[in-house]
Structures are given as structure tokens and as C-alpha cells.
Write a structure and sequence with these properties.
By secondary structure, this protein is mainly alpha-helical. It is 79% helix and 4% strand. It has a 3-stranded antiparallel β-sheet. The longest helix is centred in the middle third of the chain and has 75 residues. Bound molecules: zinc ion (2 copies). One of its GO terms (molecular function) is zinc ion binding.
């Protein structure tokens, strides 16, 4: 080993006659005898050959240290890669969710719009219909009232007793019908209010 080292000892660039037989410890470099006496005067210089195993050891230690650093860097690389992948997947998922939500809202709006249009077109509670029903009710009520008055005026007790149930039923039915008409007129009014409100919003 020593022989090989000796045979390969390079010459100094600055002092061509001299070989780099020494190693300057503070400067960490090979030096020749002249360098040692001139440029590296006062530096702790030792025989190069004696330094080889020590430097080898230093380099091996550096290699060992770098190995664990490389391992942890590779691990970091994998983790970051995985994270960035899941990050990308996540943002794609969020994008998809937004689209789905948007489409859902659009479909719902379209549905509501169609429903409203249908209601406006085919509402069974058209004011005209309600009006007609009210007129019919008034006619029926007037008739019932007239019949009842006539029976009372006629003062025929058998007729009065005989018609009692019919007339009471007729008044009851008319009363029920009247409540129903009030409800219809009211809900129609509310419906129209809703439409107007909606219209003012659109
Ligand atoms: Zn030199
Ligand atoms: Zn030096």
C-alpha cells in the first residue's frame, strides 16, 4: 500500500522538483516540502502517507452520513409525491362536488320554475272559477232562504215539521260550502301574492 502510494506521489504544481509528500492539516491539502516551508509556514503538516487511513475514515464517515440523509430524502420525496397526488385528487374531488352541487341547484330551479308555470296555467283555484262558485252559492242560498220563508209564511205545521230536516241539511251544506269558498278565495289571494312577490324578485 505504501509502495503504491509512493510510486504515485504527484509533483507540486508550483515547485516542479518537489513531490506532494506532506499534508497540511488546517488547509486540508497535499503540499510539497517547499510549500510547507513557504506558503504553509507554521501550519501543522504531516507525512501524507500517515494521513491516508485517517482521511479514508473521514470520507467513509461522510458516506455513511450521506446514506441516512439519502434514505430520509427518498422517504420525504415519496411522502411529498403521495401528498401532492392526494392533493391533486382532493382538488379534483372538490371541483366535482362543486359541479354536482351547481347542477343539482340548476335542476331544482328548473323544476321549481316548471312547477310554478304549471300552477299558473292549470290552477284549479282560478279566480274566475271561484267567482262562479260564489255566484252559484248565492243562488242556492237565496233559493233555500225563499223556500224557508214561504214555509214559515204558509204556517202549515206538517209542512214545517216535514221540511225541517231538508232545510237544516241544506243550510248546513251551504254553510260548509261557504267556508270552503272562503278558503279557496284566501289561498288564491295568497297564491297571487306569492306570484307577484316572485315576479318582483326575478
Ligand atoms: Zn510546493
Ligand atoms: Zn497550510
Amino acid at each position: 500500500m505504501k509502495e503504491i502510494f509512493a510510486s504515485q506521489t504527484p509533483r507540486c504544481d508550483k515547485h516542479q522538483e518537489e513531490k506532494l509528500r506532506f499534508y497540511c492539516l488546517p488547509c486540508c491539502m497535499l503540499v510539497c516540502r517547499d510549500c510547507m516551508l513557504l506558503t504553509h509556514q507554521g501550519h501543522n503538516c504531516v507525512e501524507a502517507a500517515s494521513r491516508v487511513s485517517c482521511v479514508k475514515e473521514d470520507l467513509k464517515n461522510l458516506l455513511a452520513a450521506s446514506e441516512t440523509e439519502v434514505v430520509s430524502a427518498r422517504e420525504m420525496d415519496r411522502t411529498i409525491d403521495k401528498n401532492s397526488q392526494s392533493e391533486e385528487e382532493n382538488s379534483k374531488k372538490v371541483e366535482k362536488d362543486i359541479d354536482e352541487h351547481y347542477n343539482k341547484v340548476l335542476r331544482k330551479l328548473k323544476y321549481d320554475r316548471d312547477e310554478l308555470v304549471l300552477q299558473v296555467r292549470h290552477s284549479p283555484l282560478k279566480m274566475k272559477t271561484v267567482c262562479e262558485e260564489v255566484k252559484n252559492w248565492l243562488t242556492a242560498m237565496t233559493n233555500t232562504i225563499e223556500v224557508t220563508k214561504k214555509i214559515l209564511e204558509g204556517n202549515n205545521q206538517w209542512e214545517i215539521l216535514g221540511m225541517k230536516k231538508n232545510l237544516t241539511d241544506a243550510f248546513d251544506r251551504l254553510s260548509e260550502r261557504q267556508k270552503d269558498l272562503t278558503r279557496k278565495a284566501e289561498s288564491r289571494r295568497v297564491q297571487q301574492l306569492c306570484y307577484h312577490l316572485l315576479h318582483s324578485l326575478l
